[in-house]
Specification:
Length: 116
């Protein structure tokens, strides 16, 4: 994959069942004014993310929770890049250890997996 993309790409492969649980276990209501992201990565990354989240000043409506070793982040729409948590996520030492997707994307992934 790295040869195709022309950079070192990390893959975090999950089964259809695991992706289903990612979507199902979302700890937040889905308010229209917020985005919810789930983070998938190396073992223990959820604790590192939670520690980083706990050490920042949160925006109103910004929350984080760990469910079954998955870190979920809720942030008001339009503030994803403006959140102090983006400074945590932007650390180079985390780049190859995790990936995140909007929870709605997992629904789209599940639809594609069902078509296989």
């Amino acid at each position: 994959m790295s040869t195709h993309l022309f950079y070192n790409a990390s893959l975090f492969i999950r089964s259809k069942e695991e992706v289903c649980l990612l979507e199902k276990n979302t700890p937040f209501d889905m308010p229209d004014d917020c985005n919810v992201y789930a983070f998938v990565g190396l073992y223990g990354i959820e604790r590192i993310l939670m520690d980083g989240f706990n050490n920042i000043i949160h925006l109103p409506g910004e929350n984080a929770e760990i469910v079954h070793a998955i870190f979920y982040w809720q942030v008001p729409k339009g503030n994803t890049l403006g959140s102090a948590f983006e400074n945590v996520l932007g650390k180079k030492n985390l780049k190859n250890k995790l990936t995140s997707r909007n929870i709605n994307t997992f629904g789209k992934i599940l639809k594609k997996m069902g078509e296989s």
